[in-house]
Amino acid sequence: MGELIALVGAPNSGKTTLYNWLTNSKFKTVNYPGATVEYSIGAMIPELGPSKDVMDTPGTYSLFPKSADEVVTYRALYESHEDRRVSKIILVMDGTQLDRHFILASQLKAAGFTFVIVVTMDDLLRSHSIQLNTKVIQDYFQVPVVLFNGITGDGLEKIVEVLDQQMTKVPELIKPWSETQIAHEVSVAKTVVQKALSKSTETIYEKTARYDRYLLHPIFGLGLFFLIMATLFTSIYWVATPFMDAIDAGFSALAEMTGQYLGEGLFSQFLSDGVIAGFGAVLVFVPQIFILFFGIGILESTGYLARAATLIDKPFSLLGLSGRSFVPVLSGFACAVPAIMATRNLSSNRDRMITNFIIPLMTCSARLPVYALLLGFLFHNQPAWKAGMSLAALYFGALVIGSIAAGILNKILARSQTSFFMMELPLYRQPRWKMLVHQTLSRTKSYVVRAGPVIFIFSALIWAGSTFPNPDAPTLTERMQTSYLGQVGQVIEPVFEPMGLDWRVGIGLMSAFAAREVFVSSMAIVFNVTDTNEDTQSESLLKVMSEAKKSDGSLLFTTASLVSLIVFFMIALQCMSTFAIAAKESQSFQFALTQLVVLNVVAYILSVLIYRGLSALVY
Question: For the whole model, what pTM was predicted?
Answer without folding.
Answer: 0.69
